[in-house]
Design goal:
It is built from six helices and six strands. The chain is α+β, with helices and mostly antiparallel strands. The strands form two sheets. Strands 3-4-6-5 form a four-stranded antiparallel beta sheet, with helices on one face. A hairpin with a 6-residue loop joins β3 and β4. It is globular and about 55 Å long.
Amino acid sequence: YMESLSFQIFPGICTGFIVAPEGFQAALAGARMMTDRFQSEYRQALLAEYLESSSYESYLRRLGRQYRLRTAFFLRTASRRLAPFGFVQRPASGAFIVLLLAPGIPDAAVKRRLAGSLVCRALSGYSRTEAKRNGLVLGIGSFSEKEITDGIELIAQACRWVRDHRTCEGDAGA
């Protein structure tokens, strides 16, 4: 398990953690030394103190409420606007939502169409098997309602374009 505290606490902190089997400790410590040799011990001590305080617990509760509201807004808006192109899968937890696309709308083509305007991941890229899932992985963690609405509109436009411009090979170009 890996987590970045930059996402949860402060973007500039550049600190995270990994929970891994004991046998990986030396390799992970070596990799860290190669990539981030000069992490401030003062910053780490300050962060540890904050994580043990009640302020952090209060912050997490507030953050949880914000994520629940943001997720609910996204699901309402996306379910309405993106229904012609697929199905929005409710997340179990976290700041990512999956849009399962209709069979005639390849996720890789939609991702290419969105390049430069919206960052997303093609769900098919996560599978090594023949039966790949077709969809987009979308992050909603730190966006305002307007940014979410604008992003959903960009996705709808890209899906419509891909669906309407499919080639004989079954994929649409960017």
